[in-house]
Design brief:
The chain has 144 residues and is α+β, with helices and mostly antiparallel strands. The chain has helices at residues 6-12, 56-63, 97-103, and strands spanning 18-24, 30-36, 46-52, 66-73, 83-94, 121-135, 138-143. The chain has 3 helices and 7 strands. Strands 1, 2, 3, 4, 5, 6 and 7 form a 7-stranded antiparallel sheet that branches.
């Protein structure tokens, strides 16, 4: 067991771009899909993902805001063990263009050609409640 703090974990997450976002569907099934955090690496327990309002992910979160995120970091330098992170949290669908601007990166223009004015675009915020991590012999939990 180790005792990492949230800032310790944030440093280790710097190079992780993708997470698997898990939701519960209307019928109660579990669904997961890859989402990019756009390398927003100043992790404080909140993660942000852009998507379209018409996607099932949004409907799932609006029906049941309990979500999960799974991250995997690659091996570090000199054969350091990989990092695995499981986040339990609450999802929120944001439709505020001010929030879009606060989290926008030029790389997003590839998928959202009209930038923050892209019709039907939303921002998903996942607020972590509990984070589990594993990396070699290090293992622990951070409650927020």
């Amino acid at each position: 067991m180790s005792d990492w703090s949230l800032p310790d974990l944030a440093k280790k997450m710097k190079d992780i771009d993708f997470a698997m976002l898990g939701t519960r569907t209307e019928g109660g099934a579990l669904a997961s899909r890859p989402m990019s955090n756009n390398r927003e690496v100043e992790y404080d327990g909140d993660s942000f993902f852009f998507t379209y309002a018409r996607f099932r992910t949004v409907g799932d979160i609006e029906s049941d805001p309990n979500v999960s995120l799974a991250f995997q970091g690659s091996k570090g330098l000199l054969g350091a063990p990989p990092l695995f992170i499981a986040v339990e949290g609450t999802g929120e669908v944001i439709r505020d263009k001010g929030e879009f601007k606060a989290h926008w990166h030029a790389e997003l223009n590839r998928w959202f050609e009209q930038g923050v004015d892209t019709p039907g675009m939303v921002l998903i915020k996942v607020h972590a409640k509990r984070i589990h991590y594993w990396s070699g012999k290090d293992e622990g939990e951070i409650k927020l």
